Model the fold of this input.
Amino acid sequence: MKFAHLIAASILVGTLAMPAASFAADKPVVGLVMKSLANEFFKNMLEGAKAHEAKRGDYTLKAVGMQSETDVETQINAIESFITQKVDAIVVAPSDSRALVPPIKRAVDAGITVVNFDVALDDKAKEEAGLKLAFVGPDNREGAKMAGDALAKKLGAGAKVVIIEGNPGADNAAQRKLGFMDSVAAGKLDLLDSRTAHWETEEANTVFSNMLTAHPDIQGVMAANDSMVLGVVKAIEAAGKTGKIEVVGFDNIPAVQPLLKEKKLLATVDQFGQQMAANAIDKALGVVAGGKPLEGWVKTEIKLVTSDDVK
Amino acid sequence: MDTTDLTTAPAGSRTIATTTKTVLREAGIGIALIALIIVFSFTPHFLSSSNVTNILTQVTINLVLSIGMTFVILIGGIDLSVGSVLSFCAVVAGTVMTLPGLDPVMAVFLATISAILAGIGFGLLNGLISAYWAIPSFIVTLGTLNIARGAALQVTNASTIYSFPAAFNAFGSKTFYGIPLLFLIALVLVAIGWFVLAKTVFGRVLYGIGNNEEAARLAGHNVFFYKVAAFTICGVLVGIGAIIYMARLNIASPIIGIGFELNAIAAVIIGGTSLSGGRGSIVGTLLGACIIGVLANGLILLGLSDFMRQMITGFVIILAVILDKYRERLTKA
Done:
């Protein structure tokens, strides 16, 4: 029924959109609240959403991004302005899993369909606010475990490894670390050290060089994102240990494609960020069109990427 | 003000007393660095040749930025934009370096020139605006910090630039008897900076402006020119820093360099340069940058947690400034 509705809607739009712009007001309006657009990952996600809007053509997209990763206020203001504008749906990637709960609750109370994607809102904060909301997103812990398992399989039990963590306090950083720890336990790896490099290339280069000095026998590295992989691989090259230390990462950014090809990076994880916002919008529109409300955790696709996947 | 006489003093005529003070000041920072090295030398691997290479590599970018920052702080200014400008210079250079159809040598050459020009552009902007309208450079550079970051994002559409010529990438990790080539470049810049500040009239006038701007003006110096020059020199060094970053890490991206300005300011201040201007030296800055680098490296080798490491770095900055106060009193007496 939902599908039929969509087809009906697209036929309607297809026939009417061209001559009469005024009909655009009849299309559902989706407010998209993104994280920092200075981050390539979110910028691509936004472009994916815009392409999706053009392709579907049966809704209007209003997107808001932030100046920086921690700019919580911009997100709160954006949600409040979407409530005022009486949009049909809000799709939000929260920059803070607690601070965003009250404004989202107000949006839900105002009768707006809200979909939480990318980073899950805090369960306890939701409960306290009396908010019931599903989460659409990848399982970062599972993804990190896939990468970690690939490393464990390559190196074998007892191999000496280190973890390069993301920002302390960030939920995805915490989940990815847990996933790596799962692999350490399952693969019986010997974890020598685990430190943050705040998602950054230069800091990862410095931190890993110093770890390598303290533990010259490191055999494997699990980095919580690919920007840090770039710094780690350069540190391995500088130490003349290329081929002796295996690295796994997360995000599958364009800059690591050459490294995958040259086998300087064993594996990374793709969580299909470009489609993530678009998927969440599809889910929101489904509910707006009268579909069943979302429940629990709607997991999105993640995939392990190795040199075999690079042409 | 014990050094207003420097405003008008030609190069080379510094009194013995002043020279002694400078030497004492730098010796104090040197002793702090040596003490730090001795403490860390008890941890295994710290004094290994490969670790020394690491520390020097890790110090290089901050050192280059700190040289420029010293010029700006000496005239009583501050440059908060260096991290963002470094990122802008890097993406401009990265774009040039990856232009199709350029031969590698030409690509690297043009990229270096364009990074330095981009740095000069922002340096001029900082200097001209703060000197012409007499706006505190703290505010002006806070503005250019955002302009440069935004411009870097705009130019690249927030994407990372990679795949530089192989020789350029290899150059970034080359060492000469265990000393990274990039660090040697930084040392040459230190030597030039030292010469300009300590041995030329131009340098002495910068000190004079930092001590007493009005006196410098009354002595007939074109204060506007000197101020713009200090910020422009800082811009040149940021451009060079951007190329060094690219050589070391083989990427250029609009999100690199966040917070680099704070590290550079810390190196300058730990190195004994006064935030109010007029007092300090490049040698001090070199030692200050080394203290930060040794500390960051040594604390990881010690196995301290990330959070403890951050706290200790903060304590050391404050300690350095307090020590400086005592040194000031000693050398005045």
User: Anything to note?
Assistant: The radius of gyration of chain B is 20 Å. Chain B has one domain: 4-332. Residues 1-13 of chain B have pLDDT under 50 and may be disordered.
